[in-house]
Design brief:
mainly alpha; two-stranded antiparallel ribbon; 6% strand
Length: 72
């Protein structure tokens, strides 16, 4: 059981690690970038706003591996 969880975690991590640079480039290409216009902002340089894509792909990878594990 723990081996399956470790494999699923590693695959989800690798998926997010590989997809993150492409998501950043895609966000810049379509203009989904948060540009700080005020001094009160935490980010001082433009930041991509499509970070949810990586989290969602990681969730889908983990879910695909464990969706049929506990059916009776």
């Amino acid at each position: 059981m723990w081996g399956d969880i470790a494999i699923a975690f590693l695959l989800a991590f690798i998926t997010a690690f590989v997809i993150t640079p492409y998501t950043i480039k895609y966000a810049i290409n379509i203009g989904a970038v948060d540009t700080p216009k005020e001094d009160r902002r935490i980010n001082k340089k433009p930041t991509p706003r499509l970070r949810w894509n990586c989290c969602y792909s990681r969730f889908l990878t983990f879910n695909a591996l464990f969706s049929n594990r506990h059916e009776h």
